[in-house]
Specification:
Oligomer: homodimer
Number of helices of chain A: 8
Distance between the termini of chain A: 35 Å
CATH class of the largest domain in chain A: Alpha Beta
Number of domains of chain A: 2
Radius of gyration of chain A: 20 Å
Strand content of chain A: 15-25%
Structural class of chain A: alpha/beta
Largest interface: A-B, 75 and 75 residues
Largest sheet of chain A: 6 strands, parallel
Order of helices and strands of chain A: HEHHEEHEHEEEEHEHEEH
Chain lengths: 218, 218
DNA sequence: TAGATTGTTAATCGATTAACAATC
DNA sequence: TAGATTGTTAATCGATTAACAATC
């Protein structure tokens, strides 16, 4: 499936699947820090995440030597390193496109902050929605999309429009400078190779699980 | 990462990664059918999905011989087969747990129907929300969770509660008979091996993409 | 020191791709 | 028939795991 879009992690020798696990490590480590723990081991982290300690050590060793034999990893230090590797030190300003129920939920979700992202703009084409306030932001008309992205230098967007509008809106965002899209539209988007797309598709996830579920309780 | 939860597809020789692609095939084929197409080839399908024709043929051949040399696949027939394989012929009644912005968005999303699922119950613990109507459903008190799941024989649930409540609610759902959970809580859930969990985590997806995005436009 | 745990190598396991005979 | 495309095999590629020397 390459990785969902035309995007291929070119210039790098680092497996994309490894990059994709770093956010999970970061999240687990952040919880540990909140619990007041100072150090952890690949084994403990592996138990939390349901994966092998070998995999965690191998993944981390792709980026450097962050641990100490006999001791394990200093949590605060490792968090800092992972944030740096993932380029989360400066906040990414993200556009939410589509202000329906889902766009509304995303805009009101406060879990982006402190994890590297801030929803900074919301767009919709519906005159009823334009001007509405959501979590401190005012819904902008879709016509402002390109100008705003260009002026503000926004690089990341979350797509929450109906499938029928998704490709057209994507083309406009990409032309304006968006380079990473998290799409909630149930459709495979076509983008240039330098643009990343990742998908969230509840129906796909449920269908995947349905395969294994016995309809009657065993 | 095994596959995210303790769940491991036991009794089966079919790779989970293959099962996970079937919903994508099904979705693309459904669009093709709506466009009025009658047949397709592994090549055409592969182009739509950004994957190789060989992979599609190999995946499908895991479950049977659905195509014809020289002609390709009859779309309607293949859709029927995939729906059957994925056990989507009867509608799955799904519980949404948590009636915040996200639970609201999920309950109002009409994309579940016609794809094998129906949101049938919504639960929340907030007295302010209990009794509220959402897309024809009335928000039930969390106290009714176990009784409803048991009485109705519900097997699938969508978890849209805060991280702090997620594990406790999960334990209750599992005890009551839930066997597949789509979780929006940013936490790794612990479940028995016979329960599946899949996660939707926008922050994780954005962090994954951030690794590859140049902050300045190249 | 002794025990614990890293980083790394080599072995294993699994997934993807290329190629082609079969056949519609 | 000739062209197209499947299903499948074998080769390739990539990811995970086991094991252990190094060392804190």
């Amino acid at each position: 499936m390459s990785n969902g879009s035309g995007f291929s992690p070119v210039h790098n020798t680092i497996p994309d699947i490894v990059v994709g696990r770093l956010p999970l490590y970061l999240r687990a480590l952040t919880y540990m820090a909140e619990e007041g723990k100072a150090t952890t081991s690949s084994q403990e982290l592996g138990e939390r995440l349901g994966m092998s300690s070998a995999q965690i050590r191998k993944d981390l060793s792709t980026f450097g030597e962050f641990g100490k034999q006999g001791t394990g990893y200093h949590i605060g230090y490792l968090i800092g390193q992972l944030r740096q590797i993932l380029k989360l030190d400066d906040e990414w300003r993200v556009a939410v496109v589509g202000a329906g129920f889902l766009g509304h939920a995303l805009t009101n979700y406060n879990g982006f902050r402190h994890r590297g992202f801030r929803i900074s703009w919301v767009f919709d084409s519906d005159p009823e929605k334009i001007g509405e306030e959501m979590n401190g932001l005012v819904v902008q008309p879709m016509g402002e999309l390109e100008a705003t992205i260009q002026r503000e230098g926004s690089r990341m967007a979350i797509l929450a429009v109906p499938a029928s509008a998704a490709q057209e809106v994507t083309d406009r965002m990409v032309a304006a400078g968006i380079r990473a899209i998290l799409s909630y539209a149930p459709i495979n988007l076509t983008v240039p190779p330098y643009v990343q797309v990742r998908y969230s598709a509840p129906v796909v996830e449920l269908q995947h699980m349905a395969f294994y579920v016995d309809k009657a309780l065993v």
